[in-house]
Amino acid sequence: MVGVGEMFLRRFLSTFFGYLLLIHIAEYIPTASAEGHCVWYGVCKNATEKTLNCYYDGPAKPLDETARPIIDKYCPDLAAGGLTCCDREQLQNLNDNIIKAENILSRCPSCLDNFYKHICAMTCSPTQSDFLMPKLEQFNSTHKRVVELSYHLSATYMNNTYSSCANVQMPSTNQLAIDLMCGDYGSSFCTPQHWFDYMGDKDTPAVPFQINYISGDEPVDGFTPYNPPTKPCNVGLPGQPGCSCLDCLESCPAPPPAPPAPRPFSIHGADGYAVIMAIVFLIFTTLFLSGVYCCNQQENVVDWAGGARRGGPETSPLHSHRSSVASENNQEMATNPTSVGWSADQPDGADDATFFEKLGAETETKLEDFFQWWGCLMASKPWIVLFLGLCVIVALGHGIRYMQVTTNPVELWAAPNSRSRLEKKYFDSHFEPFYRTEMLIISSKGLPDIEYKSPNGNVMSFGPVFNSTFLLKVLDLQNRIMALGNTSRIEDICFAPMSSPFSGPVTADNCAVQSVWGWWENDPDQVTDYLDDNQYLEKILSCSKNPYSCLSVWGGPVLPGVALGGFLSPAEPLSKTSRFHRATALILTFLVNNHHDKEKLKPALEWEEEYIKFMKNYTENEMPSYMDIAYSSERSIEDELDRESKSDVSTILVSYFIMFAYITISLGRFTTCSRLLIDSKITLGLGGVLIVLASVVCSMGIFGFCGVAATLIIVEVIPFLVLAVGVDNIFILVQTSQREPRRPDETVAQHIGRTLGQVGPSMFLTSVSESVCFFLGALSDMPAVRAFALYAGAALLVDFLLQVTCFVALLALDTRRQNDNRFDVLCCAAGTKADGAAAGEGALFNLFRYVYVPFLMKREVRASVMIIFFAWLCSSVAVAPHIDIGLDQELSMPHDSFQLKYFKHLNQYLNIGPPVYFVVMDGLDYSDRDVQNMVCGTRYCRTDSIAMQLYSAYRTPNLTYIAQPPNSWLDDFFDWAASSACCKYFPSNSSFCPNDYSTSPPCLKCAIPLEGPEQRPSSTDFQHYVPFFLQDNPGFSCAKGGHAAYSHAVNYVNNRTHTRIGATYYQGYHTVLKTSADYYSALRAARSVAANLSETLNRNLREAGKNSTVNVFPYSVFYVFYEQYLTMWPDTLKSMGISVLSIFIVTFILMGFDLFSALVVVITITMIVVNLGGLMYWWGISLNAVSLVNLVMAVGIAVEFCSHLVHSFSVSGGGGRVARASHALATMGSSVLSGITLTKFGGIIVLGTANSQIFQVFYFRMYLGIVLFGAAHGLIFLPVMLSYIGSPVNKQKLARQLLRGKEAVAETSLTRVSAPTHRHYNFDTLLA
């Protein structure tokens, strides 16, 4: 855990500063001598009392030569004089104790040298009496000793020394040295006077007597303040460089100017997209209205007699005949075809048709002939077809047993070869994962603030959560949580950074818990004993200023930014000077070890399950009325998602049931009540629904055999999609069969074959278009999108095959039942022959033909439709770039989830962001001095080293989203190796020994030799002692042990001779991240930093002649989920582009190479998708993987709204575009409305009642938009656009239709004597 080493620094600093007093002497005795003299010499000690310096007021004595190495090292100026006021024992005490300060400040020798000077002068200066005034007490009959000291010290020296040391880092804790050396003030509130006062405070543990530092530059009471020369931190000692940028701001180059913040696209202050779209709309509207009202638009009508086309006004009557061969009632044309210039004796008169027209006509004819033959074949042997179909369904469905369902979010939304997945795999294979967190956010309800009067008289207002009763209740809850577990207890799973094989088994007190009670050492007496005048609140003030002065029972600090919440104003950054005492929430965080091995993780999962059960019961039954608690565990999100998927099953089933019921009921066409059970299509509709479900089952089975993992989104979405497509085809097939009565002497099989011949090409067109669209959509890199596309494409293809086989067979059986007047469902019972009656065309069909179509095709209405829809399109294009990207985690939870409350509280009270690791991949030789300088951050390291660049990035958190400088294990290793008190080994086998090991026999010091100006271990010693460093906990005598902070950060392979360092990481923290934009922006910024690190490192390696290439990448637990948002727009446009392009190609080919029809379909589908984008903006639907799947699905469903109508238009016979569009809309419009539109609408409404927010937002809202927008474009805009720019009449198709019409007339005239009279419709007349 970052920062745990500081627990010992507080203690050894106390010892060190206590030593400073040991080396002082006596009460001031005035002397006549003008020259200074000693105030102490030697040590006065006994076995029971503290060791103090003996008073001595004589002149300085010659230096004891046996102690010269010590004074030469620390006080070379005094050693040069040869006379001192300290003996060998005092110098030995100096050597033993000053090394602790050296551990902290040695990163900056200039600072340390300045610091040494006042210590040396106080200990050994031959003129001590000039600036020291001692206070004495009798030690024995012959000696007095110093018990208090006044030290007159120059303010200039104090300020300069403080400035040179103010920014010295403690890498393992991401803290400053001053945080440890300034007591309760910490670095944020520390001043030079506070710093020196803390060093002389007798209340500091191990300080034997008071040292009063008297600041000033002028003599006072005969004392001249000591004022030695100092160096700024950026100026090095002779022959050495100054301190590094990490430890000395003066050494840092000026940061480059911040790039300007990205500005939204605007034109003269207005939204740029809106302005451009407004201009486009005005231009289009002007040109369009000019063309409609100012130009005499001519409508092309076929004139075969003249061999060319002649014009006529679009509103003129077309003639008295139908433009197609037979009416909807299948009656032959009542007028002679020659009335349009066609000779009945010349069926091949279309010799001037183009190649593509001939090819298209041939394609259309072949498709019609094939489907007519196929339908006749399927309908002639229905039971055999159904049996074979059932066999195929069972065989393919058998693959479901091999199907695997993926629920891991990582595998759902990140491609296996994506950068984030590869980096996560690398991190997981080299390091242990970040620990699991169990968190409670506890706020107050109805409690007032607490007034506290500090010792200096200031009245302060504390937040209500510091109420003593509230605090004690929180401690009780904390203790009960720590006691949870039967088979798995907290001590078995917790993160205990200070534990080691030498410290015995882990106990609950060793567990790292971030709780404000750690400041009181979890002891309620430390609060209850200080309730008078709320004195216990003083601990809040002191510990929040410097948490390293209030270490918890587990040995580390409780950080106020982690344990407290609600003290920051909106947009206020967290800092050491934040008003922590104004907190409105207490945050308890229990850290649990995480593992890649699922077996090792089971105890943690069991404990978390019990913890959640306990918290649910506590919040429901035991929580006090003045308390509000939000809680979560590491497993909570996954548990809630699983619960959510189960809770929404009923909603999904109800939705599907409503759609199924509508289908089974609405397929029938009823004439009289007596024929209700005969004309109903309940059995047929149910069969159609079962076919839809069977196609989904077959799709799952196919990919189960293939080993393609499924997802829950497939189970939830694909039945909806296939039902949309399947129902549309079912309605078109059945209603066409109903509107096309069986001809005389035509069998049921022939009639169904002829019906399928008419609609089969359209069904084939839509199904193939959608299947190809989805199969190409599988090119997406996102696993969830790819799996959905594959399963959907296969399901649609199987659904089409089952419809043209099994459903055609069912339709044949149902037609025979109806012809025999047998009841639906109860097919054994039959009505009487007298019950038979001719079925009408249906109210909806007639509504379209007589009311809607004539109204829509009026010139003014058509013009208005074009303008309105284009305005709609322009507005959607204008707002689409502003669609939010991301998926807020709150939306993934059900309404009644405790996680929702936790997310809300987290956003409100969270003060620190997630950890970020900058991973240096394997390939560096860290024992090489040049490589070390490319990585480290201390003196002699390159200014563009990894540590230096990371520190520079930390200085601009608004750009890099890095809130704390990543710690550097290499820098701490150098300091650890240089300290004689750190490295130890067992003499018996030379193995590692902890620095605080006290069991006999004692361990020996390593005494690692340091080489070169950098004073670092040799390459051999580096490789040998790195494992020692990584096993050594920070202790009383050694603050630089690396086990707590770096045991997981360094990958190494150790053998008997040396250690090879592999991958390592540098850990920091992101700034507070609350929205999806924050998260993916932090990812983007971290990758930018890492790219600079990689480029610089590899350039330096090449310049140094190193034959290696090493990359640096950032890693955090959330990257794998948010990477998709970095490329969400390109991915969306790519998926949409592939889908639309595939539909264009398939439509172009299957509609007989009809370019106009393919373009019309693509334009309409594009408009539907773009307008869905506008809906997403206005209805708050963000762009993410879920909505991308829905957009891909929308493209497929949009085909159903377009292709049937466009195909009907393209095969319509001669006449104007308006008449052909009218015919297509009247023929197909009612089927589209009653089929896909009304069916889906009923099912979608139910989704609005789902418990899941993700269902309400991404399924209900988007599905409703897909259906309504698709229907609006397909039934309003598309016919109007066809009336303007629809494909011209294919002369070859018309010639073949007329030829077939003549054959049909010849066939049916022989038996038509008694045929009833049927109406013939002229759409141009209707329009008038």
UniProtKB/TrEMBL annotation:
It catalyses: cholesterol(in) = cholesterol(out). Residues 648-813 form the SSD domain. The chain crosses the membrane at residues 272-295, 383-400, 653-670, 682-703, 709-734, 755-777, 789-813, 863-883, 1185-1203, 1224-1250, 1262-1286. The keyword Transferase does not apply. GO terms for molecular function: cholesterol binding; lipid transporter activity. Residues 323-341 have a biased composition (Polar residues). PROSITE patterns: SSD (PS50156). SUPFAM superfamilies: Multidrug efflux transporter AcrB transmembrane domain. It is found in: Endomembrane system. It is a multi-pass membrane protein. InterPro entries: HMGCR/SNAP/NPC1-like_SSD (IPR053958), NPC1-like (IPR004765), NPC1_MLD (IPR053956), NPC1_N (IPR032190), SSD (IPR000731). Keywords: Cholesterol metabolism, Disulfide bond, Glycoprotein, Lipid metabolism, Lipid transport, Membrane, Signal, Steroid metabolism, Sterol metabolism, Transmembrane, Transmembrane helix, Transport. It comes from the Eukaryota. Residues 1-34 form the signal peptide. Belongs to the patched family. PANTHER family: NPC INTRACELLULAR CHOLESTEROL TRANSPORTER 1. This is NPC intracellular cholesterol transporter 1 isoform X1. It comes from Vanessa tameamea.
